[in-house]
Amino acid sequence: MQATQAPAEPFEVLLDYEQRSLSHEPGRPEQIEAAGHWRGVGFRLGQRRLLVSFDEVVEIIPMPAATPVPGAASWMLGVANVRGTLLPIVDLKQFMEDERTALHESARVLVVRQAGGNVAVLIDEMYGQRTFNDQDSTETDESESSRFDGFIKQSYRVNEVTWGVFDMALLTRTPEFRQAAA
To answer: What's the fold here for domain 36-178?
Structure first.
């Protein structure tokens, strides 16, 4: 007959979990990435499929309730309290294409870093994480001059779909974006 071990105390079980967790150190995604790969967050803005680098996005959330700001530009939807932090909410499609984003269940807000605090940017639809290889890289094709000139410096093409890498850091440094007064 085999001796039965007495059940461990809950604290001992938790201590064991902690010790095993701390002893296991997997590499972070940026440490285990293979050379020649680029990863980012894919989204739709109007008819464009765009990407933004992971390091520019703090979080992705549904559209929060926003309080309008008197005298602000039409693309400035207002400010929202997100877990105790006031964030300006910007309609990116209206800023870039002068067309209001329709609020629907697939619309999301990207909380992005900018100097002086984060800003929330409304997009049409979120596609999630995307990974591309160097061989997917293609020329950035802005056939007609548009507001996107300068914001998209890299593009990838997979399965006949072109994804432009949108530079959010450049957007947040643009004087017009930083001055939302109408």
So the answer is: OB fold (Dihydrolipoamide Acetyltransferase, E2P) (2.40.50)
Which residues does 162 contact at the CB level (< 8 Å), separation at least 6?
49, 138, 141, 155, 156
Q: How far apart are CA 71 and CA 150, in angstroms?
A: 28
pLDDT digit string, tens, across residues 10-39: 888 888 777 777 765 555 454 445 667 889
pLDDT digits (tens, 9 = 90+) for 98-148: 899 988 888 999 999 888 889 999 999 999 999 888 888 887 765 545 778
- Type of residue at 148: F
Domain ranges of the chain: 36-178
The three-state DSSP-derived secondary structure of the chain is: CCCCCCCCCHHHHHHHHHHHHHHCCCCCHHHHCCCCEEEEEEEEECCEEEEEEHHHEEEEECCCCCECCCCECCCEEEEEEECCEEEEEEEHHHHHHCCCCCCCCCCEEEEECCCCCCEEEEECEEEEEEEEEHHHEECCCCCCCCCCCCCEEEEEEECCEEEEEECHHHHHHCHHHHCCEC
CA 116 to chain centre: 18
